[in-house]
């Protein structure tokens, strides 16, 4: 499992297997945000087994399922609330890490007006380009 930091206490990764939740816990994460949609691929038929295992391991678990590029204000607010309320460090994931990165950027921009340049740089360092989202991110307001 490879992770990339977005900010202090928040990292992203690509698709986690159920067994990798043990590693998530061993690496010191306290919470997981899952942005995968149940049934989106053979390796993620649903999130119930993940939620159950996370609970067994003492990990906080939040499921905010989103389709690629389809981020509603409710999804963004749920991600922002999770960032504010979950115990850190937090690991967010989807199939590639892209949705998790996008939601993080929108949530940070909306909830605390994080500087756009900071978000763009953090996302790029994590391997994701937010330039296609620049205009929408500029319009985010708390």
Automatic annotation (TrEMBL):
Domain Beta-lactamase hydrolase-like protein phosphatase-like: from-to ranges: 11-107
InterPro entries found in the cross-reference section: BLH_phosphatase-like, Prot-tyrosine_phosphatase-like
Gene3D superfamilies given in the database record: Protein tyrosine phosphatase superfamily (3.90.190.10)
Protein name listed in UniProt: TIGR01244 family phosphatase
Organism the protein comes from: Vreelandella piezotolerans
């Amino acid at each position: 499992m490879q992770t990339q930091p977005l900010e202090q206490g928040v990292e992203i990764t690509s698709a986690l297997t159920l067994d990798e939740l043990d590693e998530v816990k061993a690496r010191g994460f306290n919470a997981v945000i899952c942005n995968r949609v149940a049934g989106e691929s053979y390796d993620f038929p649903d999130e119930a087994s993940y939620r159950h295992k996370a609970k067994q391991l003492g990990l906080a678990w939040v499921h905010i399922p989103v389709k690629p590029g389809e981020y509603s204000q409710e999804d963004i607010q749920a991600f922002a609330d999770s960032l504010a309320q979950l115990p850190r460090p937090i690991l967010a994931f989807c199939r590639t890490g892209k949705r998790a990165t996008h939601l993080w950027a929108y949530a940070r921009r909306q909830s605390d007006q994080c500087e756009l340049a900071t978000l763009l740089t953090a996302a790029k360092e994590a391997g994701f380009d937010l330039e296609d989202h620049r205009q929408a991110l500029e319009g985010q307001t708390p």
